[in-house]
Amino acid sequence: MSLTALYLLVALGAGLVAMFLKLPPLVGFLAAGFGLHAAGVGELEGLHTLADLGVTLLLFGIGLKLDVRSLLRPDVWLSTFAHLGFSILIGVGLLAGIAPLGFALLADADLGEMALIAFVLSFSSTVFAIKVLDERHDNNTLYGRIAIGVLVMQDIVAVVFLTISKGHWPSPWVFALVLLLPGAWLAHRVWDKITSAELTALFGLAIALVPGHWLFEAVGLKGDLGALIVGVLLGSHAKAPALAKLLFSTKELLLIAFFLSIGLTGVPSIEDLALASVLQILLPFQAAAYVAVFALMGLRYRTATLASFTLTNYSEFGLIVIVIAASTGLASAQWQTVLAVATSLSFLVAAVFNAYAPKLINLLNQVLPTQNPKRLQEADRPINLGNAKALVVGMGRVGRTTYEELHDTQGYNVLAIEHDSLRADSLKAEGFRVVEADATDQDFWERVKKGVGMELVVLTMPFHGDNLLAMDLLRKLGFTGTVAAIALRPEERDELKKRGAHAVLNLYASAGSDLAEKALRINQERQTAAAG
């Protein structure tokens, strides 16, 4: 128990330090793992099992929200293979170029081993990318869907490689997996009968681990791929979003074990650290390649850059590939430690870039040539705001209520902005006038400024940082209309007012006062009725 307590305290402390440094906590968890190993602390029993569970639930959650048709898009599969080829070429070039510098691992490496390492470094981290998208609530945005599609395609490529490199094909029983299709129908019928939240969570966990992970491992395939596939098979159920939310906290806790386990792979030598640091040189080239490929596929620079920053990192899946490659003699076992450090450092680099993504994108838009709107994909073309007088940004519960009040009660011509594609489509089907767009996009606010008669903007996005960025863009572009926003805490309300918001509603305080007022009114009415 004392070892467990030590792990918890060190992980918590490192996560808090990372948060104070404006970095994702996962960077702290990685540092905690390396620190514990360097200090000679023994490995916590069951840590790798917890880590595997976290990754399995992560991929199961992706499957619940994945539209398989997205994998057939050229900007997904073609981008994946084009970037893979470029990454291998540039990776081999870098490794060959630094070989004369005296790195022992590269002294005797032939071209085949270098190509294998470059192949491993071409993968992006599913865990890191989904964490970034989850934190932004951007899983269903255009760039989020493309990034997830690329990650899935990379996983498929890696599974094929692992199958070939092991020297044997999956069990003949692999063909029995087709029975998952009628099995999914049965699971849907069982799920219809479940009403308890606890039983729903247990149902999802059992499905992810048994017909998902265990069954695929039993026939010689990767269990994580199985979790992804059964997630896809269950994703069409009406309760799938609720299940994903139920498993979210469990997945987040288990992924802490995953990041700790990466740091426990070994104590790197000075040479290992130096080589891992040099490998970070590949990241900006890979990022630029993603931007170029996505732009050629008809995406705006902003969309291409956000997807690129999400995918520009090294993959924990690559560590699995290198372990298998080392066991079959395709590469030196020492690469495991080097690539573990390189992966950790790439998370740190990617965390910094993603934290400043909106500002970097605005800078890039000033430098890169203007794109022809006709050559852009329809989902990424300029938006026609029409004659809307009021704009509601963010169509969650608060945004929806605001829209209905302005439109139905006040008679305003209202336009709603929602960045989640699925929610936008659902609202359109209900009759709301909705445009799918990102309110942290300077290009979008440029179009708002040109809107005829736009006089009111209401910011109801759930994240305070997004509302602040939208306020800054409105002020920068000289918007002269009225701006209202929501806040959860007093300090958020004060910050929004300082940025120029004319009205800020503190949701918790307002809900409390409204409830108290209604309770007193109802109580008075009941007392009057009783007295009469």
Automatic annotation (TrEMBL):
It holds the Pfam family Na_H_Exchanger. The keyword Cytoplasm does not apply. GO terms for biological process: potassium ion transport; proton transmembrane transport. Residues 387-505 form the RCK N-terminal domain. Keywords: Membrane, Transmembrane, Transmembrane helix, Transport. It comes from Nocardioides albertanoniae. One of its GO terms (molecular function) is antiporter activity. Belongs to the monovalent cation:proton antiporter 2 (CPA2) transporter (TC 2.A.37) family. InterPro entries: Cation/H_exchanger_TM, Na+/solute_symporter_sf, NAD(P)-bd_dom_sf, RCK_N. It is a multi-pass membrane protein. It is found in: Membrane. One of its GO terms (cellular component) is membrane. PANTHER family: CATION_PROTON ANTIPORTER YBAL-RELATED, SODIUM/HYDROGEN EXCHANGER FAMILY/TRKA DOMAIN PROTEIN. The chain crosses the membrane at residues 47-64, 76-99, 111-130, 142-164, 170-187, 199-216, 228-248, 253-270, 276-299, 311-331, 337-357. This is Transporter (CPA2 family).
